Amino acid sequence: MTIDSTDNDEGNSFEYRLREVSDEEIINILRYREHYQPHAVREAIREAMNRGIISSPEDLNKEEFSAQPLPVKSIFPVGISEKQNVTIFKSLCRIVYIFCAIPIIFSVVKFSQHSYLAAVSYLLLGVYMVFVAYNLERKRNVGYSTALLLSNFPIIGFSIYTLFTMEKIVGIDIFAAVTMMVIFVYTSFYLHKLALYFSKK
To answer: What single string gives the DSSP state of each residue in 95-108?
Structure first.
């Protein structure tokens, strides 16, 4: 839930809305208190004390509540709350699942063309990607995110192989292949960064 610290409407004030947010969001306000208005911080401290998150304002000197800078802008942005990052992580995993279907579809096509070696290769790649994506989504483990990163090499290799074995290559085929490779590489690196974030929790 997004909180506007400047909201002073009667019956819908910041203080009133603060009671509706989760403990995690209260903690984030305390950690990023230097970026909120003073009255918002005072109310967040009061609400945190009411909930037992802290016992007194002096608890803000503890390391877990130390003032933190806002996350730097990045092409792989990490949110300030774990809930937000979990949502992003799951969305990225769904993108990977979509990519998992591509080598499996190519495997079926190659089997129908009696290209069994290529069919098995595509199938193994698809199964490997499904296995990694499934475990990565469940465990958010750096090991699985690293395995997904490594899968970029065979995926790029198979993409190039597929292009060059086509009877006729047109510009749209190259554009589609490059676009998909860029999306997958970006997604895998983003997932790895989020997995590193979760590993520190």
So the answer is: HHHHHHHHHHHHHH
Mention every residue, 6+ apart, whose C-beta is less than 8 A from residue 181. Answer: 155, 156, 159
Q: Which residues contact 22 (CB under 8 A, 6 or more apart)?
A: 1, 83
> Which phi and psi (to 5°) does residue 70 adopt?
-65, 145
Q: In this predicted structure, what is the pLDDT of residue 32?
A: 85
Residue type, 8: N
Q: What does the angle CA 190 – CA 192 – CA 193 come to, to the nearest 5 degrees?
A: 65
| Number of CB atoms found within 10 A of residue 24's CB | 13
Work out the number of other CB atoms within 10 angstroms of the CB of residue 123: 17
- Give the Cα-Cα-Cα angle 83, 89, 95 (nearest 5 degrees): 145
Q: Which of 30, 15, 14 is nearest to 81 (CA)?
A: 30
Spatial distance between the Cα atoms of 1 and 164, rounded to a whole number of angstroms: 49
Question: What is the domain partition of the chain in residue ranges?
Answer: 14-65, 82-199
What is the Cβ-side half-sphere exposure of residue 29, based on CA atoms within 13 angstroms? 27
pTM value? 0.72
Which of 51-60, 61-70, 127-136, 152-161 is the least confident region?
Answer: 61-70
Residue 151 near residue 192, CB atoms below 8 Å: no
